[in-house]
Write a structure and sequence with these properties.
heterotrimer, A mainly alpha, B alpha/beta, C mainly alpha, B: alpha/beta, 6-stranded mixed β-sheet, 3-stranded antiparallel β-sheet, 26% strand, globular, C: mainly alpha
């Protein structure tokens, strides 16, 4: 028996913060947080004052300038959780895992906003806070799916294992989105039909272009807000990881 | 026959195996000593392709192959017998023989049970077995598919002296031929009796290694091992 | 004193020549093992069946004696009972592998991880289908439904919905079993994802029990769901079934 055994010094702990997050991070923060603030004010003006009152629903309809952008972004976030999860299982890159985790958390917050703004609109229009309509129910279920995802994240498991489990749940969550949609089409819904993206083309369901302008601006505002929050969440996760490594090394040193 | 290059395994911030370079020749036996938490079990699990390394690689038989094919050539004796308590010893082994794709699963299950001296108890559910018998049944499971590489994780722990003697006799019988053995143990006496090279694993690193001839007397090695463990 | 008969150890049987045969032989071995262990230990199938029956009776108490007369309500009760029983059963078969670390033994063998998953899943499906086969006639009797519909025309819906439940359920059970609160974790993870199955199964069952045919749209929906989630489960099995 022979050994080709060498003992190199331990590899230095991997640099945790990636370059792009370090360089220009101030600029990114400034642009996203500042941009979100400015755009939010603009969206408020457009949504509350500029856009005309709707013929049938009256003033109550104006909540769509929050409800619809928030819903788009929540679905985008959950879809991206699925993409990041699949990529993580393929590439095993720690960054992808952190992105998926952060996206899921921010997505749950936006999904909570959908579920809060929906009933506020439903109360004056439908006369009840909640109906067991398929689309509402399935959004609520989506919320449960990603809360479950975050619960697995909160479990005390070996980090690599936890990342794999979460990735699998992220993929399955994303797979249920089209199936939910499919079942909504199969079994009727009370929810208003799409007006922005319809079979007849972009914006054709809206009678006044002012509706569309207000909706586009508020969507951009929420998208920028999403980018700002997501970035803060990701760097928080890096900091946590760095802290865990430092604590571990301090404990080892004793 | 087996080599690792810069093998590293991390569990979060904890480094279980750190940059390990190791090579083991065909037909030899390596005993790895180390205190609890040194990474002995993790090392064997890595070599058994049970866990994936964080970085580095394991080269088996000089070639890089699919882990699935390599598992066919490795036997791993764990802390637990890894047998189902509701099944008989024979049923357990027949089940494993099928998992390993052996065509004459029944015959082979009887053969290995006879080899470890359990043929008269083969048709009893293993929940009635003593710890020593369970350990022998586990050895039979490990030998089913005639692995070229045997990984034994603390084979003597928990056995009474009779059980340990029986196991020792079986393991000594496995020493000849081409079979390569790697075992981890605290038991300096039995470990040294089996191995032709010994290593000491401290905090995921191989702190010491020497051939059996270089090691000198058992007392000598025991004090060396103690010194290494204390420094950790 | 044990003496090792070396010559015997050196005559190992040849291994299966064909990979495909071996794959299914391995799946079969796992199913056989789970069924034999279940038969010996009387672990879960009887418990599941009694539990299903109990839920059927409980709902009758909760809704009053007239509850079963409305077909959609009866089919909702049926599938809620099956869903609860399925969670019980799937938790159990993975807890069995956790006991004595037997999963480690399976992972050490040269079995494809998808074959391992498939074996566990088929075992779960067998247990679920046995429970369903026993409780469906009883459901028909208790809720005064035409028996030929309940035991025959309903079969495709039951089979397809069970495959959907069993594939996602087995995958999530293999995750949940490694967490601390595994009994609670499985339903929390599983229910939101299988609600489309539940909806389709309930609608399809109501359709069948109303005497309108085999289940219509629900059947097609269940086929799509089963294919999507079965393929996805087999693809990700290797990441879940890893030490």
């Amino acid at each position: 028996m022979s050994y080709a055994h060498t003992q190199k010094p331990a590899p230095p702990s991997t640099p945790l913060k990636e370059q792009w997050l370090e360089v220009g991070s101030k600029t990114y923060d400034f642009l996203t947080i500042g941009g979100a603030l400015v755009l939010m004010v603009g969206a408020l003006y457009l949504g509350l004052l500029y856009a005309p009152t709707e013929r049938i629903q009256g003033e109550a309809y104006r909540i769509i300038y929050v409800h619809v952008p928030v819903a788009w972004i929540a679905f985008l976030a959950f879809g991206l959780v699925g993409v990041m999860s699949a990529l993580y299982l393929w590439k095993k890159d720690r960054r992808l895992d952190i992105y998926a985790h952060s996206l899921a958390e921010v997505g749950v917050i936006f999904c909570t906003l959908i579920l809060l703004t929906g009933p506020i609109w439903g109360r004056p229009i439908w006369g009840v806070w909640w109906v067991w309509d398929m689309r509402l129910t399935l959004t609520l279920l989506l919320w449960f799916i990603y809360v479950g995802y975050l619960m697995i994240r909160a479990q005390d498991l070996e980090p690599g294992r936890k990342a794999r489990y979460a990735a699998v749940l992220g993929i399955f969550g994303a797979l249920t989105i089209p199936l939910n949609h499919f079942s909504v089409q199969l079994w009727r819904t009370l929810h208003p039909q799409p007006v922005v993206l319809t079979e007849r083309g972009f914006g054709s369901g809206l009678t006044d272009p002012a509706f569309l302008i207000a909706l586009v601006v508020s969507s951009v505002a929420f998208a920028v807000l999403f980018a700002a929050v997501l970035r803060q969440r990701i760097s928080l996760e890096w900091m946590r990881e760095e802290l865990a490594q430092l604590q571990h090394r301090a404990a080892e040193g004793q | 026959m087996l080599a690792t290059r810069a093998l590293t395994k991390r569990f979060g911030p904890h480094i279980a195996i750190s940059d390990l370079h190791l090579s083991v020749a065909r037909g030899s036996c390596l005993a790895i000593f180390g205190p609890n938490g040194a990474g002995k079990t993790t090392l064997l699990k890595l070599l058994a392709f049970l866990v994936k390394p964080t970085s580095g690689e394991i080269i088996f038989g000089g070639k890089r192959e699919e882990a699935g094919d390599l598992r066919q050539r490795i036997g791993f004796l764990s802390h637990q017998p890894l047998l189902y308590r509701h099944l008989t010893a024979y049923e357990n082994l027949k089940f494993y023989a099928r998992l390993y794709g052996l065509t004459s699963a029944r015959k082979r299950a009887r053969e290995v049970l006879a080899a470890v001296g359990l043929d008269d108890r083969a048709d009893e559910p293993i929940q009635r077995f003593s710890y020593g018998m369970l350990q022998r049944a586990a050895v039979a499971r490990v030998l089913l598919h005639e692995p070229e590489l045997l990984l034994l994780d603390e084979p003597f722990s928990g056995l009474d002296s009779q059980g340990a003697r029986d196991l020792m006799a079986i393991l000594e019988g496995l020493r000849d031929g081409d079979r390569t053995l790697i075992l981890t143990t605290h038991d300096v006496h039995r470990g040294l009796a089996l191995c032709d090279e010994a290593g000491i694993l401290i905090r995921g690193r191989l702190a010491y290694r020497a051939s059996r001839a270089e090691l000198g007397s058992e007392e000598n090695f025991a004090s060396l091992y103690e010194a290494h463990s204390e420094r950790a | 004193m044990v003496e090792l008969k070396e010559q015997k150890l050196l005559r190992g049987g040849p291994t299966w020549p064909r990979r495909r045969w071996r794959y299914f032989a391995q799946v079969g071995a796992i199913v056989w093992k789970d069924v034999v262990v279940e038969y010996r230990s009387k672990g879960v199938v009887i418990t599941m069946a009694v539990f299903t029956l109990l839920v059927l009776v409980l709902f009758n108490f909760a809704f009053g004696p007239g509850a079963g007369r409305e077909v959609p309500v009866a089919s909702g009760i049926l599938w809620t009972a099956f869903l609860f029983a399925a969670v019980l059963g799937m938790n159990h078969t993975f807890a069995l592998e956790k006991e004595g670390d037997c999963m480690q033994g399976l992972l050490l063998s040269p079995i494809d991880r998808s074959a391992l998953f498939l074996g566990k899943m088929v075992g779960n499906l067998i247990f679920l289908l046995v429970v369903e086969a026993v409780s469906l006639p009883l459901f028909g009797i208790l809720y005064n439904l035409p028996l030929h519909l309940v035991v025959w025309t309903l079969a495709p819906i039951v089979l397809l919905a069970t495959v959907g439940l069993g594939s996602v359920g087995s995958l999530f059970a293999s995750i949940a079993v490694n967490t601390k609160a595994r009994e609670v974790m499985l339903p929390l993870l599983l229910f939101p994802v299988v609600v489309p199955v539940l909806i389709a199964a309930v609608r399809g069952t109501a359709h069948v029990l109303a005497g309108e045919g085999w289940g219509g749209d629900a059947l097609r929906f269940l086929v799509v769901y089963d294919v999507v989630f079965l393929v996805a489960s087999l693809l990700v099995a290797e990441y879940v079934l890893e030490e």
